[in-house]
Specification:
537 residues; alpha+beta; Na+/H+ antiporter like fold; Alpha-Beta Plaits; four-stranded antiparallel beta sheet; 18 helices; 10 strands
C-alpha cells in the first residue's frame, strides 16, 4: 500500500515536470502523459485488471470524462462564444455526423472493412479533443483571427456527446434486433433527457448556490463537484446523454454571477488536470507497442482520411453558408480538429461491450494510433499552419477566450500619477473627498518610497497613488464596449483624439497601442494600429 502511494506520487511529480517541459517545447502535454503510461505499462509496474482491463479503464475514464466535459462547459465564456454559437453547434452535430459517415465510407472502400466496423470506427473518432486544442493555443498564446479560437473552443467542448450517441447506436445495431423506430427512440431519449436534466440540474444548482450560504470554506466546491457527478448520473439512469447534460450544466453554471467563482475555477482546474493525467496515463498503460505496430497502417490511413477528407468536407459544408469564413480560415479550423481522450474512451467502450465479439477489428489500438499521430503531428504543427495560413491575430488575447474570470474579481486596483495640474496635488488625503466605495491604499513617492497612506498623507507632484474600488461585473449588460481599429491608411493618424468623430452618447475610454494601454484625453495623438475601446450608452 505504502509503495503504491509513493509510486503514484512520483508519477504525478513526473507529470508536473513534463507539463512545464512540454509547454516550453510546444509539444502537447497529453502526448507526454500517454508515452509515460506506455513506459510504465511496458515495465509492468501496474496491474489494471488483467482480462478485465478494458472494463476497469472504461469505468475510470468515464468518471474522468465527466469532469472534463463539465469543466469544458464551465470554462466557456458565453460572451465570446455567443457570436459563433450557431456555427459551433452545427460543427458539433451535423459536422460530427458527416465526419463519421465519410470516414466510415472510406474505411469500407479503402481498407475493405465491413459496413458495421467502418461506421463504428467513424462514430468513435468523429469528435475533436478540447483538452489538446486548448493546451496548444494557451501554451503558445495563439490568438486567432475572426473568432476561430472561440469557435474551436465551443465545438471541441460540445461535440463529444454526439459522438458518444452515435457510438451507442452503432453498438446497438451490432447487437441486432434494432429497428428504425428503436434508433429514433434512442436519439430522442439521448437528446431529450440529456438536455432536460442538464437545464433542470443547472437551474436548481444555481438557485441553491445563490440562496444558501456555505458555512465552511470549500463546501461550495464540494457541492459543485456533486452537481457535476449527478448531472451525468441522472440522465444516464434513464438512457439519456450524461455527457450532454454535464456540458449543459457546466456552461450554465459557469456563466452565472455566483460567489467564489474564481475559487471554483481554480478548484476545477486542478481536478480536470488530474483527470487528464489519469485518463491519458491509464490509456498509455493499456496500450501495447506490439499491438500498436500491428494496427499502425490502418490507424495511419484513417488519420489521413480524417485530416484530408472527412474533417475538411464537414467543416466546409457547415461553415461555407455563413460566408464570413474564408477558405484559409476553414482550412485552419479543419486542421485544428485533433483527436484525443474521448475517441479512445469510446473505443474502449466498444471493446468492453458484449457486442465486441462481433467486431473483428482491434478498434482500441487502431484509435490509439490515430490519436498518437494526431496529437503529435497536428498538435506540433498547429502554430506553424496557423502562421502559414495567415490566421494569427497578434492583438487577440487567447486567454480571454478560454477560462478566465479575472474580469469578475471583487476588487479593482488603479494607478494614478499626480501631476502639477492634478487637483489632488499638494493636498492631504483627508481633503480629497473620496467616495466611501473608493480607498487610497498605497502611495509611491516620487523618490520610490512606499507609503501606507492615512488622512494626513500629503500628495505631491510625481507621486503615484494606488486606488482600490469594487469591480463592476456588468451582469445586467448595461456597459456596452465596442472596438474601433485605426488602420494604416486612416486619415486620423497624427490627429488628436478630440478631433476624432464620435457619435452622441459614446466615449473612448481606452487606447490599446501594442502591449501598452493608454487612458486617453482630448490631446492624445492617434497612431496607426491603435485599438480604441468605445463605451456606448
Amino acid at each position: 500500500m505504502i509503495s503504491a502511494l509513493i509510486l503514484v506520487s512520483i508519477i504525478i511529480f513526473i507529470c508536473v515536470i513534463l507539463n512545464n517541459a512540454t509547454n516550453r517545447l510546444g509539444m502537447p502535454v497529453l502526448l507526454a502523459f500517454i508515452l509515460l503510461g506506455m513506459l510504465f505499462g511496458g515495465l509492468q509496474v501496474f496491474d489494471i485488471g488483467g482480462d478485465d482491463s478494458y472494463k476497469v479503464v472504461e469505468r475510470v475514464s468515464t468518471v474522468a470524462l465527466i469532469f472534463i466535459m463539465f469543466y469544458g462547459g464551465y470554462g466557456t465564456r458565453w460572451s465570446a462564444a455567443k457570436p459563433v454559437a450557431i456555427e459551433s453547434g452545427l460543427l458539433a452535430t451535423v459536422g460530427v455526423v458527416l465526419t463519421a459517415g465519410i470516414t466510415g465510407v472510406c474505411c469500407h472502400f479503402l481498407l475493405g472493412w465491413n459496413w458495421i466496423e467502418s461506421l463504428l470506427m467513424g462514430s468513435v473518432v468523429s469528435s475533436t479533443d478540447a483538452a489538446s486544442v486548448f493546451s496548444i493555443l494557451r501554451s503558445r498564446k495563439l490568438g486567432l483571427k475572426n473568432g476561430s479560437a472561440s469557435l474551436l473552443e465551443l465545438e471541441s467542448g460540445s461535440n463529444d456527446p454526439c459522438s458518444y450517441m452515435m457510438t451507442v447506436i452503432m453498438l446497438s445495431l451490432i447487437e441486432g434486433g434494432v429497428s428504425a423506430g428503436n434508433i429514433a427512440l434512442t436519439l430522442l431519449s439521448q437528446l431529450g433527457f440529456g438536455a432536460f436534466f442538464g437545464v433542470g440540474i443547472a437551474l436548481a444548482a444555481t438557485w441553491f448556490i445563490k440562496h444558501v450560504k456555505f458555512r465552511s470554506s470549500g463546501y461550495d466546491s464540494l457541492f459543485v463537484l456533486a452537481v457535476a457527478i449527478i448531472s451525468y448520473a441522472l440522465p444516464s439512469a434513464v438512457n439519456g446523454n450524461g455527457y450532454l447534460s454535464a456540458y449543459i450544466v457546466g456552461i450554465i453554471l459557469g456563466n452565472q454571477t455566483i460567489g467564489n467563482k474564481k475559487e471554483l475555477v481554480h478548484f476545477f482546474d486542478g481536478v480536470t488536470s488530474l483527470m487528464q493525467v489519469v485518463i491519458f496515463f491509464m490509456l498509455g498503460l493499456l496500450a501495447k507497442p506490439t499491438n500498436l505496430q500491428t494496427n499502425l497502417i490502418d490507424g495511419s490511413v484513417i488519420f489521413l482520411i480524417l485530416l484530408f477528407v472527412s474533417r475538411p468536407i464537414s467543416v466546409i459544408l457547415c461553415l461555407t453558408p455563413f460566408r464570413k469564413y474564408d477558405f484559409k480560415q476553414q482550412l485552419l479550423i479543419s486542421f485544428a480538429g485533433l483527436r484525443g481522450a474521448a475517441s479512445i474512451v469510446f473505443a474502449i467502450m466498444a471493446m468492453s461491450a458484449s457486442s465486441s465479439s462481433f467486431v473483428g477489428r482491434d478498434i482500441f489500438n487502431v484509435v490509439f494510433c490515430i490519436v498518437l499521430v494526431s496529437i503529435s503531428l497536428q498538435g506540433t504543427l498547429l502554430p506553424y499552419v496557423s502562421k502559414r495560413l495567415g490566421q494569427i491575430d497578434e492583438k487577440a488575447d487567447v486567454m480571454k477566450t478560454f477560462t478566465d474570470f479575472s474580469d469578475e474579481t471583487d476588487l479593482q486596483f488603479t494607478e494614478i500619477k499626480i501631476t502639477r495640474e492634478n487637483r489632488w496635488c499638494n493636498k492631504l488625503v483627508k481633503d480629497l473627498g473620496l467616495p466611501r466605495a473608493m480607498l487610497l491604499c498605497q502611495v509611491i513617492k516620487k523618490d520610490g518610497k512606499l507609503v501606507l497612506p492615512n488622512g494626513n498623507t500629503l500628495l505631491e507632484s510625481g507621486d503615484k497613488v494606488i486606488i482600490c474600488t469594487q469591480a463592476y461585473n456588468n451582469s445586467d449588460g448595461t456597459l456596452m464596449i465596442v472596438k474601433h481599429l485605426i488602420e494604416e491608411k486612416s486619415k486620423w493618424i497624427g490627429h488628436q483624439l478630440k478631433d476624432y468623430p464620435t457619435q452622441e452618447h459614446t466615449q473612448i475610454i481606452l487606447i490599446e497601442r501594442g502591449r501598452k494601454r493608454i487612458i486617453p484625453n482630448g490631446n492624445t495623438v492617434l497612431k496607426s494600429g491603435d485599438l480604441l475601446y468605445v463605451n456606448k450608452v
